[in-house]
Amino acid sequence: MRRLVTALVLLLTATGLLATPAASAATGSHGPKPTVVLVHGAFADASGWGEVVKRLHRKGYPVIAPANPLRGVPSDSAYIASVLASVSGPIVLVGHSYGGIVITNAATGNPNVKALVYIAAFAPDQGEPLVALQTKFPGSRLGLEALDIRPTGPETFDGYIKASVFREVFAADLPASTTAVMAATQRPGDLATLQQPSGPPAWKAIPSWYLVAKQDQVIPAAAQRFMAERAGARTREVNASHVAMMSRPDAAADVIVAAARS
C-alpha cells in the first residue's frame, strides 16, 4: 500500500496535478504567507468557513479547511495534527467551538504553528473537559433538553441539536432558510467528548487571538472572555451568535489576518 501511495504522489506531481507545498505557497513582502488551517466544531462542517475562506483568498492566503472527525478529543486532535504535519511553512491555526479544544491539542509540539485563533471556541487548560467550561458561567442553552441523542453502539451516543431549537440556540442571526438546511445537514458530535480532558495547551507557548461572540447561546460570552484572558489572547468582541464566522465573516477574517501578520 505504501508503495502504491508513493507512486501515485510521484505521478500526480510529475503531471502537475499535485503541486508541492513550496511551489503553491503564497508569498508576501516578508516571505511566504502562512497557511491558514480552519477547524470546525460539532453540529457543523467545513462549509461554515466559506465566507471567511473567500476573504482570505482575496488577501492571498492559502487556506485548508479539513473535516474534523468529531469522534473524540484525542483522535480528532491527532487527525488535525497529521494535517498540520503535511503543511510546509508557517501556519495560522483557527478553531470554532469544539474545534478550539482540537487546535489547543493539535498544535502542541509543531513549530510551524505561529498563531492560534479562537472564534467563539473552547480554549481549555490541561485536564479541563468542555462541559466544565460550558457550564462555568450561566447562559448556555445547549443542554441535554436541546439535543436529539442517538446510540451509535452499546455505550456510545451522538448528539444532534433538535431542529426545533437549532436556529435560536446555534445561529439566531442567520436567515431561517439557512439554519433549516444547517439543522438538516449537521454533523453530530460524540457525547463522550464533553467529558474528555484536554492535554497540555498549545496557547501557553503560541500567541493567540480570540473573537468573542457576545450573543452566543452555546458558549456564554463570559466563558469566552475568561478563556481568552487566561490564554493571554488578543481579543475582539462582536455582536454575533455562536457561528460568528458565518454571520460576521469580515470580523472573523480580520482577526485571522491580524494573527497572520503578527
Structure commentary:
The N terminus is likely disordered. Helix content is 36%, strand content 19%. The protein is α/β, with parallel strands linked by helices. The chain is globular. It has a 6-stranded parallel beta sheet with strand order 4-3-5-6-10-11, sandwiched between helices. Strands 7-8-9 form a 3-stranded antiparallel beta sheet. A two-stranded antiparallel sheet has the order 1-2. Helix 3 crosses helix 11 and helix 4 packs across helix 5. Helix 5 links the parallel strand 5 and strand 6. The protein contains 11 helices and 11 strands.
Q: Mind sketching the topology for me?
A:
Elements: H1 2-14, H2 21-24, E1 27-28, E2 31-32, E3 35-39, H3 50-58, E4 63-64, H4 73-85, E5 91-97, H5 99-106, E6 113-121, H6 130-134, E7 147-151, E8 157-161, H7 166-170, H8 176-185, E9 189-190, E10 208-213, H9 221-230, E11 234-238, H10 244-247, H11 249-261
Parallel strand pairs: 3-4, 3-5, 5-6, 6-10, 10-11
Antiparallel strand pairs: 1-2, 7-8, 8-9
Tell me the number of strands: 11
Shape: globular
Please tell me the overall pLDDT. Answer: 91
Unreliable sequence segments: 1-25
* Alpha-beta content class: alpha/beta
Helix percentage: 25-40%
Sheet-strand content, in percent, reads 15-25%
User: How far apart, in Å, are the first and last alpha carbons?
Assistant: 42 Å
Report the major sheet: 6 strands, parallel
Q: In order across it, which strands form the biggest sheet?
A: 4-3-5-6-10-11
Query: Order of SSEs, N→C?
Result: HHEEEHEHEHEHEEHHEEHEHH
Number of separate helices: 11
Rounded to the nearest angstrom, the radius of gyration is 18 Å
